[in-house]
Amino acid sequence: MRRQKKVWEMMINPVTYKEWTNVSWPDSYYEGEWKQGANVRFLSPEGGGTLANIVEFKPYEFILAKHIAVINSDGSEDHDSDTAKNWIGTTESYRFAEKNGKTELNTEMHIDTEWEKMFVDGWPKAMAKLKEICEG
C-alpha cells in the first residue's frame, strides 16, 4: 500500500500534477479539492478548461470524475454551447492496485470522439511522466 499511496499522492498533489500534465498540456493546473462530491476546475494558463465533479473517491484506490461544464477563459461556466454539450458527461476514472510489489494505475475515459485525439496523443506521455516522477 505504501507504493500505491505514493502514486496516488503524486497524481493529485498540485505541484506534481503540474509536472506530469505539463508534458502534454503545458502549464495546466487544477483548483479544488479531490474528495467525493467536490468540484475540481482543470485549467489552462489562459484560465479556460473544464469543471468536473468527483463522483466517487476511495483514497488510494479509486477516483471517478464526471465533467459537468466547460470553463471559459473569463472563468465563467459554459453548459450550453456545442463544445460544452460535447464535453459534458465525459468521465475519467483512476484505479490504483498493488501487483507484484508495484503499483498499477489503470485509467479509463469515456469521451466524445471530438476530444479523443487530444487524449490519445497526450495521455500516454502524461502517464509516462507520472511514472517517472513516482520512480524518481
CATH class, please?
Alpha Beta
- State the CATH topology: Alpha-D-Glucose-1,6-Bisphosphate, Chain A, domain 4
Work out the strand percent. Answer: 35-45%
The biggest beta sheet is recorded as: 7 strands, antiparallel
Number of strands: 7
Which term fits the overall shape?
Answer: globular
Reading the helices and strands in chain order gives HHEEEEEHEEH
Count of the domains: 1
In DSSP terms, counting alpha (H) and pi (I) runs of 4 or more, how many helices?
Answer: 4
The mean pLDDT is 93
Multimeric organization:
single chain
Helix content: 25-40%
Which structural class best describes the helix and strand composition? alpha+beta
What is the CATH superfamily label? START domain
| Name given to the CATH architecture | 2-Layer Sandwich
Walk me through the structure.
The protein is globular, with a radius of gyration of 15 Å. By secondary structure, the protein is an alpha+beta fold. The chain contains four helices and seven strands. 36% of the residues lie in helices and 36% in strands. The two termini are 18 Å apart. Strands 1, 2, 3, 4, 5, 6 and 7 form a seven-stranded antiparallel β-sheet that branches. The longest helix is centred in the C-terminal third of the chain and has 23 residues. The protein has a single domain, classed as 2-Layer Sandwich (Alpha-D-Glucose-1,6-Bisphosphate, Chain A, domain 4).
